[in-house]
Amino acid sequence: MEIPRRGLAIYTFGNVSAFDRDRGVLAIKPSGVPYDRLSADDMVVVDLEGKVVEGHLRPSSDTKTHIVLYASFRGLGGVVHTHSTYATGWAQTGTPIPIYGTTHADHLAEDVPCTEVMRPDAVEGDYETETGKQIIECFRDRSPLHTPMVLVAGHGPFAWGEDAEKAVYNAAVLEEIARMAFITRTIHPGAARLPDALVRKHFDRKHGKRAYYGQK
Ligand SMILES: O=C(CO)[C@@H](O)[C@H](O)COP(=O)(O)O
Hints:
This protein is of the alpha+beta class. Helix content is about 35%, strand content about 15%. It has a seven-stranded antiparallel beta sheet, with helices on both faces.
């Protein structure tokens, strides 16, 4: 319910799952049921083969993408896909979100990455699994724990975290970063990236070995 509450999706758009790594199952939103009609009993539990092990509804149409992420990225306990407006705008242009300011650097120390546009034969094949593979390919040289979000070209954002709540938090942060970056680029199309020293300072004081942000 945090997804519509934060304005990250309307009606049936988007989906979220929570993974129990010990049991090898995830609970995911059912497909095509409006948020305001959802209850906890409607969640669908599936295994890593995509087989429904509990629940009376069909799982999200994006279930296979979630499965690829859990199977490939260690330490994930939650995955979310939204259609939040600004992040989707960047995704639809296939443009990584430049790291323009400290709001961005407080959460990740690089541009928000964007996948390649999917080839037509991949679209015709196992589309949702291919979407997951595109995300994995995009993270070949980066850490999914340090960069817990991605834009899928032509589609929209995915985010993740140690649990479903943290995943949705990261999706909300992504939307805010995307909105600020859009405004920054609109005011000044040639706006410079944040200098590396400021990127490191802001990222490390929240996430580095000697982090000192917040309370002990
Ligand atoms: O992007 C997509 C489908 O491509 C989804 O986000 C839909 O908007 C919601 O699908 P369900 O999770 O309800 O199947």
